[in-house]
Amino acid sequence: MADKMMEEFEALLEESFEMDTPEEGSVVKGKVLAIEAGQAIIDVGYKMEGRVELKEFANPGEAPEIAVGDEVEVFLRSAENAKGEAVISREMARREEAWDRLETAYAGEARVEGAIFGRVKGGFTVDLGGAVAFLPGSQVDVRPVRDAGPLMGLKQPFQILKMDRRRGNIVVSRRAILEESRAEQRAEVIGNLTEGQTVDGVVKNITEYGAFVDLGGVDGLLHVTDMAWRRVNHPSEILTIGETIKVQVIKINKETHRISLGMKQLQEDPWDLVAAKYPLESTHTGRVTNITDYGAFVELEPGVEGLVHVSEMSWTKKNVHPGKIVSTSQEVEVMVLEIDGAKRRVSLGLKQTMRNPWEVFAETHPEGTEVEGEVKNITEFGLFVGLPGDIDGMVHLSDLSWDQRGEEAIQDYRKGDMVHAIVSEVDVEKERISLSIKGVGGDKFAEAVGGVKRGSIVTVEVTAIEDGGVEVEYEGMKSFIRRSDLSRDRAEQRPERFSVGDKVDVRITNIDSKTRRLGVSIKAREIAEEKEAVEQYGSSDSGASLGDILGAALKTDD
C-alpha cells in the first residue's frame, strides 16, 4: 500500500516538474510581477523570472497595454542567463502566435488586419500583429501612389498573397481588397445608372480620343466626338482635369461595365435647324477647318460643317490640290448646293459665289471681238492663248493663216508670244472659246469677191509677165491668166504683148473659196461680148458679118 502511494507521489511530482519546467524554444504563459525601468518582470513558473522591454507589448505607434497581474504569453529562449534569469521575448511569442493565425487565414483566403510601419526598397513593411510582411509598391493601391504617408500606422485589412514560414516570408496586398470593394461599389453605382440619365462627373484623365470621367467610384468614357456638335481636334480644347461636368449616360455595357458618356447630347442639335437656316443656293461665310485630297471642310457655325468638293472649288483650276486654293482657318464665301439631313452632310460650292468666267467672257467679248493674249501652250492641233478671267482660248491649225497650211503656220509661234486673234465662238456649257488669228483684219478674199459673181466683168492690173501667162491683181487678190485665156485669137495669145501696170478687163470664170482663188479670163470676156452683140444685132446667119456687128456694138458703147 505504501509502495503504491509512493509511486503515485512520484508520478505527481514528475508531472509537476514537467508542468513547471517549460521547454526552451516554446511559448509559455507567465504573470506580470512588476513593471520597472521600462521593463516588465514576468514569472514564467518554476521559480523562473525574466524581463521583457515594455515596447514589445505595444503595436507600432501605440502605447503599451500592460499591467501588474496580467497573464501574458512569452517565448522562452533559454531557462537561465548569466544573471540567473530566464531569457524571454514577447515579440517572438507574438510572432509564433501570429504565424499560426496567419496560416489559418491564408488557407481560408481570409483578410488579415495590419498596419504599414516602414518603407523598404520596392515597397513597405506591414505589422500583422506580430509578424512582419512585405507590401510591394504595386500592391498599395489601384493606381500608383506617389505619397504613402497618410497610410502609415493605419489599421487596415490586407490579403496574403504568399507565405513561407521556414524563410519567414509573407507578401501581402492592399490593392486586392480595394479592387474587390471597388468592384462592389462599381456594381452598385452602375446598378443605379440608366441610359439617357444626366449625371455630374469629374474629369480624371484626358487622352487623344476622349476623357475619363469619374461618376462616383466608376469611370465612364466621354469620346471626343460626343463632346460637342462641332469638330473638336483635341479634348483639352474643351475640358480640364479635375473639372466637374454634366454628362449624359449614352450606353452601359452590363458585361464589361463600360459606360459611354456624351456632352453634346445635352445641347441643342444645330442640325435640327440646318435646312431652314441654309436654304439651297444661299451664300454664307464660313471658316475652313480641314483640307483633304478630295476637298475642304468649311464650318458654317459650331457643329455644322459642309464639304466643298474639289470639283466645286474653282472654275479654272482643275486637277489642283484643294490646299493650293484655300488654307486652314481661312474665311470663305460658299454657296449651299445640297443638304442631306440623314447623313448630316452639306455640299457647298466655292466657285458658285463667283461668276462663271466663260459667261463673263461671252458677255464682254461677243463673236468678232479682237483679243490679245499670250501663247500658253502649243499642241498638234493648235495654240492655247491666255484670256481675261484666267481662261484659255484655242486657235485651231486651220485658223492660223489664209495662205499657209496650218502645220507650216504653227512653226512660226513660240510659248510666251503675244498674239492678236478674233473671237469666233464661245461655248459656255463646254467651257470652250474658239479664236482665229487669220481673221484679224477681216477676210480679204471675202471682202474682195463680195460684190462679184461668176460671169462678172472686172478690171485687173497686170503685176507680172511670165512664159505661161500673166499675173494680175484684183482688190489685193492675185490671179493668174493662162496663155490660152489671153485672147480668143490664137495669134494674140502672147504674154509679151502686155506690160506690168496695164489695166485689163476680164471675165470671172470661177470663185474658189477653199483655195481662195479667182479664175479670170480675157478670152471668156471676148466670147461673152460677141454672144451679147449677136443677140442684139441679129445672128451671123442673117448675112451681117461679125465685123459689122462688132463695129456697131463698139460704136454704141462709145
UniProtKB/TrEMBL annotation:
Family that this chain belongs to: Belongs to the bacterial ribosomal protein bS1 family.
Keywords: Repeat, Ribonucleoprotein, Ribosomal protein, RNA-binding
GO cellular component: ribosome
Top-level taxon: Bacteria
Domain S1 motif, residue spans: 25-91, 109-175, 196-264, 281-351, 368-438, 455-523
Organism: Tateyamaria armeniaca
UniProt-recorded name of the protein: 30S ribosomal protein S1
PANTHER family for the chain: 30S RIBOSOMAL PROTEIN S1, SMALL RIBOSOMAL SUBUNIT PROTEIN BS1C
Role played: Binds mRNA; thus facilitating recognition of the initiation point. It is needed to translate mRNA with a short Shine-Dalgarno (SD) purine-rich sequence.
SMART domains to which the protein is assigned, alphabetical: S1
